[in-house]
Amino acid sequence: MFKYFPHTESDLAAMRAKIGIAADQDMFVDIPEAVRMKKDYKLPAALSEIEIRAKLSEIAAMNRPAIVFSGLGAYDHYDPSVIGALLSRQEFLTSYTPYQPEIAQGTLSYIFEYQSMVTMLTGMDVSNASMYDGPTAAAEACFMAMSMTKRNKILVSAAVNPNIAEVVLTYAHFRGLEVAFIPVAEGETSLPDLKNLLDETVAGVIVQKPNYFGIVESFDGVSEAIHQNGSVMIESCDISTLAVLKTPADDGADIACGDCQSLGMPLAFGGPYLGYLATKKPHVRRMPGRIVGQSFDRNGKRAFVLTLQAREQHIRREKANSNICSNQSLMALYATIYLSLMGPDGIKRVNELSYQNAHKLYDLLIATGKFTPVFKKPFLKEFVLHTSLDQTLIRQALADHGYFGAVSLADYDDSYRDVVNFAVTEKRTQEEIERFAAVVGGL
Amino acid sequence: MKTYDRLIFELSVPGRTGVALPSLTGKKHPLRELGGLLRATAPALPEVSELDVVRHYTNLSQKNFGVETGFYPLGSCTMKYNPKINDEIAGMPAFNQLHPLQPAAQIQGVLKIYHELQGMLSEISGLAEFSLNPYAGAQGELTGLMIMKAYHEDKGDFKRKKVIVPDAAHGTNPASAALCGFDIVEIPSTAQGFVDLDELKAVLSDEIAGMMLTNPNTLGMFDRNILEITKLVHAAGGLMYYDGANLNAILGQCRPGDLGFDIMHINLHKTFSTPHGGGGPGSGPVGVRKGLEAFLPNPQVKKDGPDYYVEKGADAIGSVSGFFGNFKVWLRAYVYCLTLGKEHLKDVGRFATINANYVRVALKDDYRLPIDSFAMHECVFDGLVDQSTGVTTLDVAKRLLDYGFHAPTIYFPLLFHQSIMIEPTETESMQTLDEFIAIMKKVADEAKTDPDLLKRAPTTTPVTRIDEVYAAKKMILTFQDFIAENGR
Amino acid sequence: MNKVLDGILYNPTHEWAQIHDGVATFGITAFAASQLGTVVFVDLPAVGAKLVQNKEFGAVESVKAASDLIAPLSGTVVEVNDDLVGDPEAINKDAFSAWMIKVKMTAPAELNALLTPDQYRAVSK
Question: Is residue C1 part of a domain?
């Protein structure tokens, strides 16, 4: 016997008798003899729970968790204890997509709350129930723009995080969508270059806030130029910062997308995170993914249900807006609980502390004389600096002291090979910030 | 609890908070330095205490049905038990605190898991290598199709723009192919949902990039012509894509690679028992046969001697994820594989299949069995045997909720008008199945004696049947919409 | 509900066309409406749009289904029934009154390709 299989020999005998088979192999007669497995899988032997714990502890010890001072799309924010406890409730954790709404009001209610909160933060009218992550949300936003404009080209600001741009490029390449990059001037999306690139083939333009260099762009004149051209403005934002920064709606964007990881989600080696996608109401039917709407049951009681499903792949098949099916629902619950705990004041405080901490580190690093500014532009919790130090040395010293930071931008562009990234959140203490600066300053 | 129907916004009282955060350290660097870049008004998030939050979401959870609540025979979704040890491991701080961009030397443990799991999935599938980056089955399909396209284009063959998809396929198949820029060639299936070989031969040409297939098919039946099918498509220069949604059925019985498939995805949240989370996060690793490995998406995890490292392959299709996919999902699948090991993984398909056939045989006098032959991991009925009462599959499904069961998948596959698709999975006991069968029979009786009872069902659930037309017409999609419609 | 109106022409894909003075009025049939269920959304082209016979010109959507609208004839859209966009359920009430668009025909010869009421009756049985 095995703990996950309840089949006793006597059960199996009774079941075989009822089915009318002598041996289990009789049920598999349709599998051609030539390809039936005749040997066991070449896999390790089964482990007991005691052994699993020991083995995984050993593997875990091969990792070196660090005090994080970089971001680039994954930020080390505070995760309130409440969230993990609530997410582990089996009713949330083990249920499927809410296809039977009468016994899934828990899921449907929190998705409705999630959609509401995403629209509050982005200023948009509607949000879907979640996307995989920020980069894939941006790719899907491009397809929305394509469908809205019947055009075939996407402009991506070179100030967009390359890990978003790469996913957009991949999705676009295979779909037959053209992509061009808008050059950066002084760390911001260049408006004159944008205007030059806009033509009648451009479906959408992706910009990012705060951008890859941590700069909070103002986007003055950007939406006007894009809309004058009949194109769609897609703004990818770190959603946590939207609690204090002007919203994508304020910036004139038609689609807002990005990652919700910054809402306290554990770094967890890159996932699960959560992508969000929101837009204006007239475009709701162009949105991919699930959407929850409010209705009433037969007794007139308020109830929630999956709606506008006719856009989706299980009905529209190849004409669907997207193929997305499983999403990141449980992480949408994470985001919803996080934002409920925080409230408007808490999430503001998170941003204030991050701002203060990041600027403190910035000042300390400049004061070491070993770092110089790359741009003189406003930033919130993330920034880049030039350094004359040997980067291998920096990272080794940081690792020796249990820090992770100063990630190189050399992969982004060779002319940035002396530029490194820093990010500081509310989680970093004053001592950590000072010691971090001292470690690199002492090199 | 059942009557609880609040939204978190409705608990809000100005001034309350659910967190305690550090104080600001001084007056230096206030956020207001950002001036005109700041929003004018704060978002209208709820203001609630920590207990308000805990109680609200606990109450909401109790309106949900999970695998641990009761039997969840949702066909095609493989709602097996999600072991607790997997969750425990996924919660270890040493995994939660890793930044995905940390240098390889600091993340050897997680890279080892990535590498070992992809190796185990390769062995189970009979393929050469897997990427764990795709986030879900549908994205695995898309990634696999990108690989298919890249393979042909790499050979300089740009005319293969069509993908064959049987009409019985999951809806994601044609949607993924369209998203990948392919034209879809849909071929009709036989009455059993199998590939019609003549129809297949008729569409094969040098414009076909490949074919997507689920086997066992969406009726839960194994296509015995599979070797002929893969041979035909290969002879025409196409590749075979295996939709791994139904992989659970064949664990221990056969391997997609041995059947002639070149590319596949696995839904770890189905076959490898990771929790579905109310619709996600899932994980959809994509695997390829030898010769296609270079096309797998970036980042790629490799091993050199005892050391693991991360690489960007020059021939890779690109990236389909920000980082390494849903790490904590594939970590759970890794633990599941270690727990079952070679001794027990091989039994999964056998026990899942015996369970499905047990239900099939027990219910065939009460529910129409369109195809009376062995099922694999799931069986499909076409409504009640007695169709005179006007009771539909929907009514049956709703009545099951009153009896404390989750409903099976209904109205899929589309081959039948009243489909009821039951997938018990291997973790359910004969006793549970007997209880389910007894209730299914009782419902069939009720349909004859009191059809109205079924039409009214469910009545014991937190809400009764919902007006879907109202939802679609009114489009109340946020709390703000709700207030605009109803006032405060 | 499965009625077929005489005096107008049909697409096998369940659109109807009524011809008057070189202008064709399009809608969907009662059969199509009953197959869809309650219609919750109609997507129609703008005035001035050029339609091509047998190509899609819009879509109708119910709670559980969506269907493309296929142009019975080629032409230019001269009028759109905006009331229908606000009240799509009118299609379920009376599909033959719930017209969608009026189109100035550009290829009258195409009329020969459409089904007569009797032919459509056979299709929609």
Answer: no
Query: For residues B231 and B255, what is the distance between their CA atoms, to the nearest angstrom?
Result: 16
Question: Which residue of A lies nearest to B403 if distances are taken between CA atoms?
Answer: A103
Mean pLDDT of chain A: 96
Does the pLDDT of residue B1 top 70, yes or no? no
Q: B473 to chain C: nearest residue by CA?
A: C40
Residues of B numbered 34-63 whose beta carbons fall under 8 angstroms of chain A's beta carbons: which are they? 34, 36-40, 42-48, 50, 53-54, 56-58, 60-63
B322 and A133 within 8 Å at the Cβ level: the answer is yes
By Cβ distance, the residue of B171, B328, B464 closest to A272 is B328
Of A368-382, B393-407, C28-42, the range with the lowest mean pLDDT is C28-42
**Domains, chain A, ranges and CATH?**
67-76+344-441 (3.90.1150.10), 81-337 (3.40.640.10)
- Look up residue B182 and give its DSSP letter: P
Using CB atoms within 10 Å of the CB of residue C69, give its burial: 0 to 12 exposed, 13 to 18 middle, 19+ buried. buried
Distance (Å, whole) CA A112 – CA B478: 6
Cβ <8 Å between A309 and C61: no
Range(s) of the domain holding residue C68: 9-110
> How confident is the model over A350-367, as pLDDT tens digits?
999 999 999 999 999 999
Is residue C84 in some structural domain?
yes
Q: Do B350 and A317 touch (CB under 8 A)?
A: no
CB-CB neighbors (< 8 A) of C64 in chain B: 468
List of chains touching B (3+ CB pairs within 8 A): A, C
Instruction: Tell me the per-residue pLDDT of B255-279, one tens digit each, with 9 for 90 and over.
Output: 999 999 999 999 999 999 999 999 9
Looking at the partner chain, which of A285, A307, A315 has a beta carbon nearest the beta carbon of C65? A315
Check CB contact of A13 with chain C, cutoff 8 Å. no
What is the value of ipTM here, to two decimals? Answer: 0.97
A302 chain-B contacts, CB cut-off 8 A? 5
As given in the structure block, the two tokens for residue A154 are 């996407």
pTM for this prediction: 0.96
Q: What is the CATH number of the domain that holds C33?
A: 2.40.50.100
Q: B181: which chain A residues are within 8 Å (Cβ-Cβ)?
A: 174-176
Q: How many independent structural domains does chain C possess?
A: 1
Which domains are assigned to chain B?
8-61 (no CATH), 98-345 (3.40.640.10), 348-461 (3.90.1150.10)
